[in-house]
Specification:
mainly alpha
């Protein structure tokens, strides 16, 4: 009777069993929407994502940025 009243009045049931069921349904829905990253992941080589730091490279980047931004 309480569950029928909840459905008719768009009320969330506060009974422990109903709350567990709603939580499980929300998790299942999230998993279906979220998906996985497996298809988008790829192995990166060391040279592809590591740029070694040097004062010369930093200075060149700073000068390049200053020229591009037209700032002093």
């Amino acid at each position: 009777m309480y569950n029928n009243w909840c459905k008719r009045n768009a009320f969330t049931s506060k009974l422990p069993g109903a709350q567990k069921q709603a939580k499980k349904a929300a998790e299942d829905a999230h998993e279906r929407v979220q998906g996985t990253l497996d298809g988008h992941l790829r192995e990166l080589s060391v040279a592809e994502h590591i740029v070694l730091y040097s004062d010369k490279a930093f200075r060149e980047a700073a000068v390049e940025w200053l020229v591009a931004m037209d700032q002093v």
